[in-house]
């Protein structure tokens, strides 16, 4: 009997060894390696855009031969220094080039929102600014401003101008002041007049005439 028991025990031990070899035990939870998430391995991607600005010679504020800081040995002209500061502040890449007919070309690359801000500042600094006064009826000013000022911001952004709307108690409440480059002002005037025309037409269509 003891011999049989010994044989059975040896068989059980052999089966246990085979099971451990064929099917090893899983590691304990505390010893498991951290799993890397796939998303963490992929670098974040931000959209980039490149836009080109052209400033005609007659609208340029500075010329290439107008250097500053010459006593310090620097040869950067005024407009180059301004663009370097704007590029640094807005975190964009900017290249300047002046053609034979003195048209200044500025190439701006970076995130769309930063490029838009850089463009606005370049035009404000390097291009001659003009100011015009546009007559806008008080009742149309709300449509010009838009909800939370969104339409006004869109107008300023698309035309690269600054549009000032006076308060209701101003001496000339019907006058809107537009400041910016010549082309931008012309575009802003056209868009403002279009808004006024549409709102005036809608007000006329809503007018009810009582029957006699």
UniProtKB/TrEMBL annotation:
- Signal sequence extent: none
Keyword DNA-binding on entry = no
Which Gene3D superfamilies does UniProt cross-reference here? K Homology domain, type 1 (3.30.1370.10)
This entry's Gene Ontology molecular function terms read: RNA binding
Q: Which InterPro entries match?
A: KH_dom (IPR004087), KH_dom_type_1 (IPR004088), KH_dom_type_1_sf (IPR036612), KH_Vigilin_N (IPR057778)
**The K Homology domain, residue ranges:** 128-197
- Organism's domain of life? Eukaryota
Its keywords, alphabetically, are:
Repeat, RNA-binding
This protein's record includes keyword RNA-binding: yes
Q: What is this protein called?
A: SJCHGC07141 protein
Q: Which organism is it from?
A: Schistosoma japonicum
């Amino acid at each position: 009997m003891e011999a049989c028991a010994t044989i059975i025990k040896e068989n059980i031990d052999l089966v246990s060894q085979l099971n451990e070899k064929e099917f090893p035990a899983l590691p304990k939870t505390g010893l498991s390696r951290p799993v890397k998430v796939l998303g963490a391995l992929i670098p974040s991607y931000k959209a980039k855009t490149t836009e080109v600005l052209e400033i005609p010679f007659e609208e340029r504020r500075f010329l290439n031969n107008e250097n500053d800081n010459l006593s310090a040995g620097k040869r950067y002209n005024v407009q180059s220094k301004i663009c370097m500061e704007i590029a640094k502040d807005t975190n964009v890449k900017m290249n300047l080039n002046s053609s034979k007919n003195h048209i200044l070309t500025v190439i701006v690359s970076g995130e769309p929102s930063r490029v838009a801000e850089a463009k606005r500042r370049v035009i404000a600094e390097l291009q001659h600014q003009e100011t015009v006064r546009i007559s806008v009826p008080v009742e149309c000013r709300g449509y010009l401003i838009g909800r939370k000022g969104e339409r006004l911001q869109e107008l300023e952004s698309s035309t690269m101008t600054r549009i000032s709307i006076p308060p209701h108690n101003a001496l000339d409440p019907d006058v809107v002041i537009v400041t910016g480059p010549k082309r931008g002002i012309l575009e802003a005037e056209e868009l403002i007049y279009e808004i006024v025309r549409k709102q005036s037409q809608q007000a006329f269509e809503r007018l009810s005439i009582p029957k006699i």
